[in-house]
Amino acid sequence: MAQSESARPRPLQGVRVIDLTKIVAGPNATRMLATMGAEVIRVEWHDDRALDLLRGVRPLAPGGEADSVNRSGLFNNINAGKYGITLNMNLPQGRDLFKRLIADASVLCENYSPRQMERWELGYDVLSKINPGLIYLQISGMGKSGTYNAYLSVGPTAQALSGLTHMSGFPEPMPPAGWGYSYLDHSTGYYGAILVLAALLRRRRTGRGCYIDLSQTEAGIMLSGTATLEAQVTGKPTDRHGNRMQAAEWAPHGAYPCRGIDEWIAIAIQNDDQWAALATEIGAPDWTRETRLSSAAGRKANENDLDRLMAEATKEADRYDLMNRLQRRGIAAAAVQKADDRCERDPQLKARGYFVPLPHSEIGTWNIEGFPAKFGKVPVDVGGLPHRGAPMMGEDNDAIYRDLLGLTPEEIATLREEWVI
Amino acid sequence: MNTQALLSSALAGTVILECGDEHGEFAGVLLAGLGADVIRLEGKQGSNSRRLGPFTTPDHNPEHSLCFSRYNLGKKSISLEIEHPAVREPLARLAKQADVIIDSGEAAAVARRLEFYREMQRSNPRLIVCAITPFGLDGPYRDLKMTDLTHLALGGVMASCGYDPQADGAYDTPPIAPEMWQAYHIANEYAVIAITAALNFRELTGEGDCIDLSIHEAVSTCTEVAIPTYIYNGAVVRRQTGRHAAEGRTRPWLRRTRDGRYVKAFLFWGGRDVRVITEMLNEAGIEHDLESESYRELHRRSPSEAQAHFSAMIDKLVASLTAEEVFHRAQAKGLLWASVRYPEENIEDPHFQARGTFQTINHPELGRDLSYPVSVATDGNDRVTTVTRGAPRLGEHTQEILTRVGFSAAEIAALAARDAI
């Protein structure tokens, strides 16, 4: 039966996620689940060994106490929509409380080093006895099974091993440019969310929980496109191609300088009509009429010259003006946007409401990056159930321990004094 | 083929129709891995991706495109001219039995087909429609022409990827778009999150929905610290060779090995790193002064000079070993280092073999199998997702699928006679 807008449940209504994740890959997975309406409870501890490094990572919101662990902008962006509690897992009492939380949870996500949960005697074999319906997502750099299960990894490690670092940049003798951030922290988060959403569908059908051992490096291998296949066919190692297109005779295909400091435009010419339109738009210099450039194959064969000539032709242009002029002629062209451009000068992101202002209990209201799809009926909110940014360290201790575990204020106070929460 | 994978029951019985172009093909691969019956609707000329390389044969036969076979793994193909008036009835019957329709491509074309899908939702209110378009279905950029390259430009990925500036801070190389259709990967991963969330919503409500996914927004969410750095500190990160873009210059991570390859060898500069590197230098028999009083004195007097000296020692160590030796020796000592591999080098790696990361698929035109990357997770033993088939030949399942929705052989022949299928 159709329901009214206000009465519609969120997709993950009633799903409780215990979130033992850190840095970006794991928290990004649980961020997606929070956006879809799960009750995500971050479980953290604040001594130096256990603290989520991301809480101290720049940028920090201006002002405040210098040693505050609640002011990282990146942490706020990645952990929006979650609740936060503290729990000292190194103490038996802490682990007992954790088991009580698990008993009523739907999902556990964690990305400690692969053996940590077993060291705490909280492996899947133990937790699944407490809660057979539990979906346990364990995220690690290499994966827990296999021969590298003791190896350690962060995003750049996985990017290097998977082949993604190699496949970015100009060919030798230039080194790989790689990725200028931990792309695989994002991707692994997406795969983590997908696997949990699928496991929840499975559980709705079968009633059964499961254990999932997600490998960040495998996520990178999954994103290696056709490279692994082509190398098997040709017998040659995968090469790099700068910004050029290898899948088709598209040229020019690259980033070309524009007026200003480090301003660029990306242009992708896909056929002869676009080439003719491009030539007209850049003033039809003589070289655009050279016979060798009249066909797609000819342009591809002369790409070195073409890129040099294109760079000359674009260098005095305003990047947005040129983008608009080329787009009007049906050419795929786009300014290379930096963060300030996307925040200040991107009318599309603004029109679609991409940035979502969310309150944070210490640093006030800040824009959070949204979910990139609009739904007709499904209620989604990057601010999650609490409709706010990231939780402060232990912000929800009182409410969670009281409402979920039935602890009295006195018991909660004692646990605090005993350094358990 | 592993058809008993843990999560293959998640979407078992779920029928997904997939229209559109290469913007939206990867989602279907992931959904097929979760057990869905994914039917690729192709025009009689076949999908765009059949004409994109690389190819297994020099004649560029559309049945031999590795781009198509990679991004259509596990699907069925029905050849059907979607805009032909005679296919309205077959489409209506397919949509009536379908759970999800994925459409992709330029927004105007998708919006036109969306009217038909909405009509289908009236007879099948459980139907979920997911439109994957460059900018979503509204906004001032809606109809701009885009490719993967221009998405990575406008969405901010390129601004963070590339090479170090010159000594004066000016860049003499362009921003770099990492290869292999990463904009589409990101958007399709989000599409699967959105679709599986909508399927969870449908379990609660019985209602389908319409999802409007913007590739531009998807890419924009995937730049890690870039947006928070601007929002919180008003600063813009600058790209650097093989490491994270940052506000200021950081020390290099990529180092050359004895075999002419690279490793990603980064440090946290703690005492443990120094101790471990010293051990590795000693084990490799490389002379160094890191245990000398003069080095300790340098560290006291000028930590940055000491770091530079230490970094040079690491270069020396790395240059004395192969990339794989560095990787395994460093990991054995708990360093988060990795060799910068070609993606295909992982096929023979015992770790990924043990985890079932790759699956062989037969290519009759080559007379042999190729290994496809198919898995990101295990259940502790086997991979959790399934691979039921390779990519389909054009129209391979037309007869089977039309028969399944009630068409007789004569009716199918009549559709063929009208050039509709």
What's the total helix number of chain A?
Answer: 17
Task: Compute the number of strand runs of chain A.
Answer: 12
Q: How many domains make up the 3D coordinates of chain A?
A: 2
> How helical, in percent, are the residues of chain A?
25-40%
Amino-to-carboxy terminus distance of chain B: 30 Å
What's the overall average pLDDT of chain A, rounded?
Answer: 96
Please describe the biggest sheet of chain A, giving its number of strands, its sense, and whether it closes into a barrel: 6 strands, parallel
Largest interface: A-B, 158 and 152 residues
CATH topology assignment of the largest domain in chain A = Rossmann fold
Order of helices and strands of chain A, N to C?
Answer: EHEHEHEHHEHHEHHEEHHHHEHHEEEHH
Shape of chain B: elongated
Mean pLDDT of chain B: 96
Strand order of the largest sheet of chain B: 3-2-1-4-5-6
Beta fraction of the residues of chain B? 5-15%
Radius of gyration of chain B: 26 Å
Query: What's the CATH C level of the largest domain in chain B?
Result: Alpha Beta
The CATH homologous superfamily name of the largest domain in chain A equals Crotonobetainyl-coa:carnitine coa-transferase, domain 1
SSE ordering of chain B: EHEHEHEHEHHHEHHEEEEHHHHEHEEEHH
Q: What fold name goes in the CATH topology slot of the largest domain in chain B?
A: Rossmann fold
Estimate nothing, just give the exact number of structural domains of chain B: 2
Short description:
The complex is a heterodimer of chains A (421) and B (421). Chain A is an alpha/beta fold and 421 residues long. Chain A has 17 helices and twelve strands.
